[in-house]
Every structure is written in C-alpha cells, then in structure tokens.
Write a structure and sequence with these properties.
- With 157 residues, this protein is mostly beta strands.
- It has a single domain, classed as Beta Barrel (Porin), CATH 2.40.160.
- Helix content is 10%, strand content 59%.
- It is built from 1 helix and 9 strands.
Length: 157
C-alpha cells in the first residue's frame, strides 16, 4: 500500500512539474498559525488553484497547561488577482476562494472555509510566501462561526 502511494505522489509531481527555469504547478511547504502543518498548492490555470493542508490545531484555554492537539484537514479552490497590487520583482496576487475543512476531535467539526490572502511569488516562481485569514462556518456537529489565520511558504516543483 505504501509503495502505491509513493508511486502516485511521484507520478503527480512529475506530471505537474515544469522542466523550464520557472517553478512548476505543484507547491509543497508548511503553514504556521491556526492550523500549523503541511501545505500544498496545485495551479489549475494562470489564476486558479487548489490548495490544502494536513495540520494540527491546539484546543484549550490559554491560561491552562492542558492543551489538546487535533488533526485539521482542509482543501480550497482559489481565484487570484495579479493586477490589484504591483511589485517591482516577483508577483503579489490577492486571492480568495471557498473550501471545506474537517477538524478531528471528540466532537469532530465539518465546515466551510472562505480564505482571503496575499501570496508573494518570487522571481523564477519556485517559492511563494503567503498570509491568509479564513472565516469559518462549521455545520457539523453544530452551526458555529470562527476564524483561522496563518502564514506559510511553499516550494514549487
């Protein structure tokens, strides 16, 4: 089973990699904040992409020492506006989108995400840095609003 997963991952990387000097369509990296973990982004067109993360969230009161760590998985569809903010080097698109998340805990949560952020794409397009704020609307187990925010970095193959 592990061998099949590795073959699939390598096939996807090779399929979406760009052999030119510029970075490819698939980026892998880290996300830090709420949640913190591993991030991926796959460009579908020049201004649309899919992103996701497998990460961890802390649950507990800041004044207490007994925090619990829970698994957080999310995926989004993103639209990018490259003309809103001009920079001298690289690119700085504003992005927004919609997605979903599952937070695995005693009473797991399932909800809708609405990410809004900025991504600085370095010249050569191998690396991007991003900052995002994400309003959340949990549907299961109860209707509840929340917010996530994070920064991250990804390397594109």
């Amino acid at each position: 089973m592990k061998k099949n997963i590795i073959v699939i991952i390598l096939s996807v990387i090779l399929l979406y990699s760009n052999t030119a000097a510029e970075g490819g369509n698939l980026g892998l990296g880290i996300i830090i904040g709420e949640p913190t973990g591993f991030s991926a982004k796959l460009w579908a067109t020049d201004n649309t992409a899919f992103d996701g993360a497998v990460a961890w969230s802390l649950i507990g009161n800041p004044g207490e020492r007994n925090f619990n760590t829970v698994l957080h998985v999310h995926a989004d569809y993103l639209l990018h506006n490259f003309s809103l903010l001009e920079v001298e080097a690289g690119q700085l698109p504003f992005y927004y989108g919609v997605g979903g998340r599952i937070k695995f805990q005693n009473k797991s949560r399932v909800g809708v995400r609405v990410p809004v952020g900025l991504a600085y794409i370095f010249e050569g397009k191998h690396v991007d840095l991003f900052l995002e704020i994400v309003p959340l609307f949990d549907i299961i187990p109860a209707t509840e609003f929340g917010i996530n925010s994070a920064i991250g970095v990804r390397y594109f193959f």
